[in-house]
Structure formats: structure tokens, C-alpha cells
Amino acid sequence: MRVLVAEDEEVLAALVATGLRKAGFAVDTVHSGDEALAQLGLHAYDVVVLDRDLPRQHGDDVARELVATASTTRILMLTAAASTEDRVAGLDLGADDYLTKPFEFPELVSRVRALRRRSARPPLPPTLERHGVRLDTVRRTAHRDGRDLELSPKEFTVLQILLEADGAAVSAEELLERAWDAHADPFTAAVRVCMSKLRGKLGEPGLIRTLQGVGYVL
């Protein structure tokens, strides 16, 4: 899914973004609070990994703004301050979770995934199943009728979005917004190409139907 990393230490931000991409997320990075609010106003992020001590606009102010606007974006706050008082203060601001630096990267990935599942209404189970397709969003495995699908990270994400839709149509625009980062060109055939590869790996009988002018349905 789509994550914004707001971290003023550019090397750390790049490392976090690279690791989250390897875990299957579409990731954008910013290095200040005002940039974070600008990006959050442009795109519907599932989770923001928010450094508390951001320049120009403090991370606390970013969290307050998200809460005030009733944003559905979940907040994972990062900070070097490890005291109980700091954690309580961060959570009271509206953060959904709190992680102190330094942290173990697998824990960060796990917390981001958990927040993403909780952000759905109703909350999503870690394993999604429909029409013989079984997707384990924690282990990142996908099977159809017991056969390993060997999906790329992008194919896995697109299939996950279709499964989460539970039979409803998902437009190409929504897929591009949720599965690709801000550098994706909206006029490319990225979604169509990914969908073609995914259909090939799912095999027969075909499971993904195209509704002309509407989108895709599993």
C-alpha cells in the first residue's frame, strides 16, 4: 500500500523507504513538516511514518492537522525520545503508534502493516481469500488452489487491493494512486501492463474482469 516517510535525516529516510519498498509498499519521502502536509493533501496515504522533530513545521503540528481534518491516514510516530512521558504525549496528539530510534527494521515494517490493516473499515484480516486465491499479507505469499503464484511486489499489491474490494470494481486511477508512488506517470500503461502479468500468473479460468470505463473486478 502507500506510505509517506517524513524524516529530516535524508540518509535514514532513504533507508526506510528502500526497506518499505522491498516489503511491497509504494513509498514517497519528504524531509520537513510543511512538505509532509503538502503531500498528505495531495495523496491518500495509508500510513505516514512521521519523525516528531521535523524542521519548518514540527511533527506534532502535522499530527494535529491530520487529526483535525479527520484524515484516514494512520500515524506511526518516530522519535529519539524514549521516555514514557514522550510516548504518552505523542499518542495523545493523535499518533496511532509510536516507535523510538534506533529501531529494528522488521518491527517498523510489522507496525506499518498492522496500521494498514486497522485503517480499513471493517479492519482487514491478515489473510485474504476469494475464488480459491489466498493472500497472506504478513508473510507476503499468494496461492491459487494451493499453487504458489510467485508475484512481484507490485502484482501482490494490486491483487491485494482487488481482494480487499470484495467484489466491487476498482478503477485504474485508484490502483495507480494506491499502489504506485508520486513518481508514477498517470498517462503510462503501468496499471494495464501489471494487470496483464497478474492475469497470466493467476491462470485459467480467468479471475479478473475488465469493466469498460469503470475498472477491474476480481
TrEMBL record:
One of its GO terms (biological process) is regulation of DNA-templated transcription. It comes from the Bacteria. Keywords: DNA-binding, Phosphoprotein. Residues 2-116 form the Response regulatory domain. GO terms for cellular component: cytosol; protein-DNA complex. Residues 125-218 form the OmpR/PhoB-type domain. GO terms for molecular function: phosphorelay response regulator activity; transcription cis-regulatory region binding. PROSITE patterns: OMPR_PHOB, RESPONSE_REGULATORY. InterPro entries: CheY-like_superfamily (IPR011006), OmpR/PhoB-type_DNA-bd (IPR001867), Sig_transdc_resp-reg_receiver (IPR001789), WalR-like (IPR039420), WH-like_DNA-bd_sf (IPR036388). The modification 4-aspartylphosphate is found at D51. Residues 125-218 bind DNA. PANTHER family: REGULATOR OF RPOS (PTHR48111), TRANSCRIPTIONAL REGULATORY PROTEIN CUTR (PTHR48111:SF36). This is DNA-binding response regulator, OmpR family, contains REC and winged-helix (WHTH) domain. It comes from Streptomyces wuyuanensis.
